[in-house]
Amino acid sequence: MTICFFGCDYKYETEAVMKLFFPLTLFEFSYEEEAEGDRVVVRSDEGRLSVSVYTDGKTEISEGTHEKAEAEGFTDEQALCRMLYRILEGMTGVSPKWGCLTGIRPVKKVNALAAEGKSKEEIFAELNRRYYTSEEKLELAYATAITQDKALKRLSDNSYSLYISIPFCPTRCAYCSFVSHSIQSSGAKLIPGYTEKLCEEIALTAEMAEKKGLVLDTIYIGGGTPTAISAENIEKIMKKVSECFDISSAAEYTVEAGRADTITEEKLRVIKEYGASRISVNPQSMVDSVLEAAGRRHTAAQVEECFNMARRLGFDNINMDVIAGLPTDTEEGFAYTIDKLIGLDPEDITVHTLTVKRSADLFARSDEVKKSISPSEVDRMVSYSCRRLMESGYMPYYLYRQKNTVGNLENVGYAKKGHESLYNIYIMEEAQTILAAGASGSTKLVNRATGKINRHINYKYPYEYISRFDMMIDKKNTFMNENT
Ligand code: SF4
Among 129, 150, 192, 414, whose CB has the most other CB atoms within 10 angstroms? Predict the structure, then answer.
């Protein structure tokens, strides 16, 4: 299908609305020229706005004006996207539960309206008016805002989180879109050099933080799969963190252990010895055939063994990630996964919805994914997890959305009271400065007074991180000196 623009170029938002109804579809775009065949025509012409949709021999047209849009508090772009949304809703019979709210952080919208003194009812009415968001999702966003309120209120202006990236994995999962190197291919030989440079950057980051008068609040070692590297290299990195930072002042220290095929007792002992208070053991599914179809080289039994081993070693704050919508999964299979995890009783369960990005192996199998599982099934899986987790004492505490997510659904972190991960809340709400070390690490300086965020991103791939390290550090130093 082609999207044609006349008198405007609202490609990004228009495409986002189209993807709500036609997931995993690639669109073509034309400007000032109408294509033939199935198409959408978006016009902004001297104050007159219109959207026409031609598909399957049917035509629907919606018209408005700039004055009307402005009077209702919408830009022309928003008004046109709303028209398109309404037409597609009617033509397809699909009503996305988030409506035409396509942004990443819906809870930010709830928090912003609450900060204006609006009541729950007023917040719901406004978000429903602007985005047609359903009551179910508004309740979820509102519950999340309530749970994270305490964590946001404890923030001070000069606190920061430290993020350390270990971008290696044993093999690549089919749905993965991260910059993660498979150890089985070229990754293994890069690990020693990477560890060395990472330790250097950790030390330099501590100096940068001190120079800026920042106070460490949380630490997160993520990936990739941090436990994909050896216990010896994990120890080098965590030892460097202990030497360079006062970890006793950190309110939270997470190591995302990740895949069960990488977790060993030796690695968990190192993680514990160097002060991590929270780990992740991520099953994604507790159904072996689903794990196999997703390219995960471990079984559900291995996940359970790792979880029990971590408990034996004294980890009392464990997160487990699952994904709704994995190929070959079913509603029953997903419900089994959720129930199984509730039975294991971790402190934190994160429910993601499958997102298929272009860089994932699964993208080439989009048709297979579409046939394997429908958005409405995934919707029921996500609703089931929300209901079951909340009735089992887990409350939503952070929530975000991504483009190209099946059913346009969300990712939600649920935790038992008092176990909400501060780092996850702060990164999702962009509420705190993050200093990042490692390949693709994204440093964000958040000015809480103005809301301005300045960003610096390290080189993406381990080989360029190693080979261009000095140049990268020079740039990071300049960034830190020039921004607040
Ligand atoms: S474990 Fe995570 S980062 Fe690693 S390949 Fe799988 S999805 Fe990607």
Answer: 414
What phi and psi values does residue 123 have, to the nearest 5 degrees?
A: -65, -45
Best residue among 175, 178, 181, 261 to mutate for probing ligand 1's pocket (most ligand atoms within 8 Å of CB) is: 178
pLDDT at 180: 67
Q: What is the dihedral of CA 433, 463, 197, 164, to 10 degrees?
A: 30
- Distance between CA atoms of 368 and 438, rounded to whole angstroms? 35
User: Which structural domain range is residue 112 located in?
Assistant: 106-143
| Helix 300-312 / helix 331-344 crossing angle, nearest 10 deg | 20
Residue with more model confidence, 361 or 147 = 147
Tokens of 373: 């599982």
481 assigned to some structural domain: no
Asked if the model's pLDDT at residue 408 lies above 90, the reply is no
Minimum-distance ligand 1 atom for the alpha carbon of 175: 7
Residue 186 has pLDDT above 70, yes or no: no
Number of domains, the chain = 3
Residues 180 and 71 both lie in one domain: no
Helix (H) or strand (E) holding 146: helix 135-153
Determine the distance separating the centroid of ligand 1 and the alpha carbon of 186, expressed in angstroms: 16
Instruction: At 287, give phi and psi (nearest 5°).
Output: -115, 120
| pLDDT, tens digit (0-9, with 9 covering 90-100), for 423-476 | 999 999 899 999 999 999 999 999 998 989 999 999 999 999 999 999 999 999
What does the DSSP assignment read for 226-263?
Answer: GGGS-HHHHHHHHHHHHHHS-GGG-SEEEEEEE-GGG-
Tell how far the Cα of 145 is from the centroid of ligand 1, in angstroms.
29
Instruction: Over range 316-327, report the average pLDDT.
Output: 96
pLDDT digits (tens, 9 = 90+) for 225-238: 999 999 999 999 99
Domain contains 248: yes
Cα-based torsion angle of the residue sequence 162, 166, 169, 174 in order, rounded to the nearest 10 degrees = 50
Residue with tokens 């968990």: 268
For the residues of 92-115, what is the DSSP string, one character each?
H----TTTT---S-HHHHHHHHHH
Reduced to 3 states, what is the DSSP secondary structure of residue 357?
A: coil
Q: Residue 174 — φ and ψ, nearest 5°?
A: -65, -30
The C-alpha atoms of residue 64 and residue 44 are separated, in whole angstroms, by 10
Q: Are residues 215 and 261 in the same domain?
A: yes
Cβ of 178: how many Cβ atoms within 10 Å?
18
